Amino acid sequence: MEVPLRVDPEVKYGKEKLSIWANGKHIVIDAPIDPYFYSYGKFDNISAKITERKAKPLSDYDTEKLFYKHSVPTRKNVEMYRSDATFEDNIPFILRVRIDLPDFYTQYPHTKELKFLFFDIEQYTKPDAMFPTYDDRITSISWCTNDRKIDCGYIGKDNKSDKNLLKVFVDKFIDIDPDVVVVFNKDYDIPTLIRRCERNHIDTKLLSKSGIKPYVGGREKVSIDGRVIYDVAYSAMTDQTLSGNVENRGLKEVSNYYGFKSKRKPLTPQQMLDYIGTKTLVEYNMDDVRRLFLLFDVYWENIYFNANDLKIPLNLAVELNTTDLGLITVGDEFRERNVIADGTNEQRYPEIFKRVKKHKDDSNYQGALVGVFKKGKMQPKNYSLSTRYKPVWKADYGSMYPTIESSFDLSPDTTKIVQYLSYNNNFKIEDNKDKFIYYVPDDVLDKTVVIEVKKQDGFLSKLVQRCLNERADYKKRYKKTNDPKDKALSVNRKVKANGGIYGIQGSAHHAFGFAPIAVATCGIGRECAQLLIDILEELYPHSVIEVDTDGVYFSAEEINKKEILDKFNKKLENKFNKDLQLSIDIDPYAEGYFYKAKNYILRTLDGKIIYHGAAMKASSKNNLSRNLIKDLAVAKLDEKDTAPIIDKYLKLDFPLEDFAMNKRLGMNIGSYKNPEGSISSRMALQAKRHLNVKPEIGNIYHYVKTKFGYELLQLANKKDLDLSYYEGQIRTIVEMFDVASESKIDDWL
DNA sequence: GCTATCAGGCTACCT
DNA sequence: ACAGGTAGCCTGATAGCG
Prior knowledge:
Shape: globular
Strand content: 15-25%
Oligomer: single chain
Strand order of the largest sheet: 7-4-6-5-15
Radius of gyration: 29 Å
């Protein structure tokens, strides 16, 4: 590896230091730069080293201005002095070092082979409790290291103490002395391991490389000094290829998706209790470790690649988010071009980001074109037939936003908002000698935004272009090799272009956001989507079914792909008067049933039914609803009678568990505006009161509706169920498969 | 006093 | 603190009705 294993900032004697781990050795050095921020004015009243710097401000790229750089001893100081007059004041220090001195971290490479420890634990849960607590014993631990030979320790059925098991595992842990600890859900496994050790008076200091006790913070942030914790669940959570393909982002679902094969079925929670101390539980536990390293193999290459490619320590690469990716990629360009972001989008574009909003969550500017159409319903009685489309095609743009950004030269050095006109729903382009002027109607701003773009390469658009080219190469390679690692690299570049470069532009508070790009990209994107709709409607009248951002579903018995593409290219050039690299793919589906925007089912050519949207597959639904949707979907697509299915479900003769709905606690319990107004907070409070479960963000509560109101599954009796409520649920779902064709057509065509 | 409707709050999902 | 967009379900307030 060309970078260190981990780097953390720390303050010593009032100065910023960097704690660096590489090749098993630890050093603490003075940070190579002091934390700092910029401003246009001098702050004489604070204790800072002030230097002058001439640079191009983001707000007006063509005019160099004088900035004052205020260097202060610690990160805390930057935070203290942060105000509307300070710039680039919210960049994590570790990344500030990376941006300013791009080769700094590569001076401390971890060159030895990385030692891994994979592990997974199973824990006892009290009957009727929702989750195990730190008071519950660990029943089984499986682990392995680089050789992938799985070891397992477990306790007997009647053994109430996990002390010996923990001792054995901690000894193994110390013996393996891993650089990288690999788990699925680090916020569960690691705190549980540590807390259980504490309960058993086993010293956890030795788990860290330095002898510093592992840290389990208030917000369950975990850290083991000298080691990197790689949480595969984080990769699974952010994995775009999974969306629409798995029911949840759990270990089982995701590993199954990536081809995990096992003779054993996963155990139910009840079985996991019944099988304590048996081979069955041990095998299950070991299977989870096999799943773990299968997924590790899917994601690791990309992380390792990122660490070296972006020149960041491994501990940053394992939890790299879009914000940080944007800071690095865009920050590199800013450094090379001598650009300073003189304020955030919110400060520079108050017209967009500080508007008086009707609702708290209103968006800042208009986004994608989204909607459903209904075509040619001349026989309104023929609903079930007329809402079936066979075959169904999806025409979609590849990487639409990044391609727009690159093809239209959208970049801070080329693009600026010159005027806000009163709203006129007519996208217009003026071609002036050395620039294009785009009139972008924005129905959120209720203005037409006039955006000028110079006819020249922009530095950010060129960067996006590089990412797209690399992506195309990896994609081509993947098609040849079918190696998931090539696919991962291709996705890596897509993510970089999408979120890391385009995504941050519309952010109100990101240090390097640049709103004109975001407004222009979305505006042009809407035009592109509409263009595609128009072409399809022209060639195949009344064929368009649904549009979402960059994809259009349409139906036609036979299509002529070449004709579509030719027309597309011609119209595209005509409209934008420019050589563009926008391209479309057209993929077939056997059939589909469309309910509402973003909500539909598709049958692929090989017969698999794919469910889209919250109405079709929300995790909050109960088994009853989920099964009914599946049964009705199959019946609908097969043109079978649905009456027997409906009758069966209306009897409501199912076990209590099948009635349980799920809701996730999304915020801290104190943040709820009205604690009674949300099922999540109500269930969290019930669980706290009756089951002694601490309310934590991310907890999922299973609840049912009884005649007394909403109750946790664990506290409810089947005889108390509010059956009319569930009958209502069933009727709603039945209508979903019948009423779709009655929905009104949007009047766009 | 009852019911229908709406707005606000929140979660889940799509691109 | 990457973005916007659609949809569903809950509660409480309010309008409309008799």
